[in-house]
Amino acid sequence: MTDQATTGAAPEAQGPQFSLQRIYVRDLSFEAPKSPEIFRQEWTPSVELDLNTRQKPLEGDFHEVVLTLSVTVKTAGEVAFIAEVQQAGIFLISGLDAAAMSHTLGAFCPNILFPYAREALDNLVTRGSFPALMLAPVNFDALYAQELGRMQTAGNA
After folding, report:
1. What is the pTM of this model?
2. How far apart are CA 56 and CA 66, in angstroms?
3. What confidence tens digit (pLDDT) does each residue in 83-127 have?
4. What is the distance in angstroms between the CA of the first residue and the CA of the last residue of the chain?
5. Which of 10, 65, 86, 90 is in Cβ range 3.0-4.6 Å of 27 for a Cys bridge?
């Protein structure tokens, strides 16, 4: 048989590996402190979005990345609602140098999680009887580069 592996042969060197293992909601929060009165006011919303990511290594080459979207919407100077979603994923990542690993965890993985977080946030807000947010896409590569530049500037100061 020609398909048999030869014994004692060195295994082939593997290149970088990336695999999405699981996507899940880590935390979900919604508060409408002025309801039902807020529904009787003219709807002139102002939206504040706070976006944050964090990651932690798990066993072996597994990593958890958490993308947090926090939204505060005000109308007529009063808080209409506050909503927060922590969308998480477990990723298997190996064979990357430190810079590539940092970029993967800081930009590539959040980019994968964002559509799930955006959908969960829209669903949460509409269940509170408010219009969907329809958040615009986010350029995590640009945010990552901006953060690297900020850290380098702070390191030189």
Report:
1. 0.85
2. 9
3. 999 999 999 999 999 999 999 999 999 999 999 999 999 999 999
4. 66
5. 86
Domain 17-151 matching CATH 3.20.20.70: the answer reads no
Burial state string for 73-101 with b = 16 or more CB within 10 A and e = fewer than 16:
bbbeeeebbbbbbbbbbbbebeebeeeeb
The 3-state secondary structure of 96-144, one letter per residue = CCHHHHHHHHHHHHHHHHHHHHHHHHHHHHHHCCCCCCCCCCCCHHHHH
20: enclosing H helix or E strand: strand 17-31
